[in-house]
Amino acid sequence: MNCSGRVWSWLLFFLIVSVPAFAQNSSAAKSAAPTITIAVDASDAPRKIIHAQLTIPASPGSLTLYYPKWIPGEHGPTGPIQELTGVKFSANGEPLTWRRDLLDGWTFHVDVPQGVSLVNVSLDYAAPAGDGGIYTGGMSATEKMTVLNWNTVLLYPANWTSDELTYLASVRLPAGWKFGTPLPVASQAGAEIKFSPASLTTLVDSPVIAGEYLRIVPLAENPTQEMDIAADSAAALDAPAEVLDSYKSLTDQAFKLFGARHFRDYHFVYSLSDHVAHFGLEHHESNDSRVDERGLVDPEHRIYNAGLLTHEYVHSWNGKYRRPADLATPDYEKPMQTDLLWVYEGLTSYLGDLLSARSGLRTPEQYRDALALIAARLDHLPGRSWRNLQDTADGVPAMQDAPDQWESWRRELDYYDEDVLNWLWVDTILRQQTHSKKSMDDFCHLFHGGQSGPPAVNTYTFDDVVNALNQVTAYDWRGFWTERLTNHGPGAPLSGIERSGWKLVYDDTPSELFRIEERYHDQIDAAYSIGLLLKQDGTIIDAIEGMPAAKAGIGPGMKVAAVNGRRFSADVLHDALRDASAPLALLVENTEYFKTYNLDYHGGEKYPHLAREPSKPDVLSDIIKPR
Ligand SMILES: [Zn+2]
């Protein structure tokens, strides 16, 4: 509504204002693309403020400057504009007047007087000090470490593509901090690092991780691949050698999967802190991934995080090198279109999980447990009835920050998980059609391989995906994907699991991963018995429509106070669920009122697993076998 109105007005603005400029730039004028200097002072990072000084070539008149808005990989207008503070423009020592654009809060118009050829900008990035902000706009600095994402600390002039603009960047770090980054370094003097000239595209694609406790772990040579790990303690860096060996194996297995590499060198920029936002963001020559402080040293935490770095690494091929044409925008102002995220994210999730098993980061059982969790959630998804899979991708720029309450009815970003099941299904079709001579590995060689070399972007459309699949083996791939993206179920697409020799089953014993996920999210997951997801204190996060709790009248935001007359705890609830012969009465508080709900449920506890289907060959184990 409001959002799409703004987007379209800006798309229109872009077409009117920018296209003639690009046309002009593509002629002889292109050589005049400006070089901008940016000096970042991150020495105040523990105070959660980053300072920057820029000099931007300009000519008299109105200078339009953008703060990056559509951040690659974040799939929305997430540039943290509310954290951009202390902005001052000057020239020849005199302050300049400016005004923010009335239609777009990320755009500034600066009045440049006669005789001025360089505009100086000083600005601060007020890094979030608590919850708030998402992805790179979330918490990024602690007492001991920080991750600098250049898009948070810069402005860039309109009418140039991010490939055309050159930035001369430098950064000052807190004294004694070490750093890692994919951005080529020109020189270092003490705490100040100067980088080689880079396009704005490369700069924004190249985070810098820095900290007192920083460990560089070499993974491979020719090209160099390494982990640049910063943590809130020295102890958190002390990962077992076999874990790091699995990441070495990951680089090898990925090369075997794709057959080429599209980076000069590659850095796993890895944050271990309980005080930074937790997510992963892909880049061409790195990924910015952030987990809790014990993420490498605690076995349970490693199991929980085992799919993160593999996913982000796959993105170097699927997402960065091969990119949907309508996501490959010329700058960070033009809106991105997200309709092909079922390839960009869905295939990445499938391949990332597969590589987590092939590299040894997950055991085959842990791989199957993760698959079972995905399949079970998607098999209990009433939101499927009104919203198809395609819409989960189309809607993400507006919807990705949606709350957890009513998630099963709203649907979340299912183009990740559901397309793990769909691409597995594709893999089994490829194998069956070719009598096991071809598989997704052949598709990856064809689609993502080619010539190894420095970063390049090779765009695609829906038709290109269908054509590439048909090159591996002829099939009605257009019909397959059209149906997968537009169906309304009921139930999850389980054919890939079943065709690979396994089936989704439920029993009364949770998998190790299931319990770890519950602990991580401070949750009790009773989704497959009574259809409830609760906080450990009894607060109801979601009640799945059509299942016993929802049928009895329970909804999100209520809080379970007692179970069968006894004060609520996780154990009390589990005991009551296990006793299938007893009635189940929940005393629930809702906006200060208490009521007892009687649930018609006698099915015991239910937890998802994959079980072998002995009548069929075990294709799944072959899929995840190391190459
Ligand atoms: Zn991703």
What does this structure look like?
The chain is α+β, with helices and mostly antiparallel strands and 627 residues long. The chain has 20 helices and 32 strands. The strands form eight sheets. Strands 1, 2, 4, 5, 8, 11, 13, 14 and 15 form a nine-stranded mixed β-sheet that branches. Helix 13 packs across helix 14. The relative contact order is 0.09. The N terminus is likely disordered. It binds zinc ion. Zinc ion binds next to loops.
Bound molecules: zinc ion
Low-confidence stretches: 1-29
Q: Report the mean per-residue pLDDT as an integer.
A: 94
Structural class: alpha+beta
Number of β-strand runs: 32
> What does the overall shape look like?
globular
Q: Percent of residues in beta strands?
A: 25-35%
Q: How much is the radius of gyration in Å?
A: 26 Å
How far do the termini sit from each other?
49 Å
Major sheet characteristics: 9 strands, mixed
- Number of helices in the DSSP assignment: 20
Helix content: 25-40%
